[in-house]
Amino acid sequence: MEITVSSKYQIVIPKEVRQQLHIRTGQKLQVILRDGVICLVPEVDLQDLRGVLKGMTFDDIRDHHDRF
What we know:
By secondary structure, this protein is an alpha+beta fold. The protein is 10% helix and 18% strand.
């Protein structure tokens, strides 16, 4: 999938990507640079995260050595 940077340094996120990630008009994205790669990460409203950890135990959390 290829996109083009406009003369104003703007890009258009392809429709299929917007649909898969449920990106809405006006939603904010975080820009993360890692090893020369640009990652766009949609911000999530805190209300949308309510209950996401319900039932989770400390055994479900990754150990430090599992992280990159």
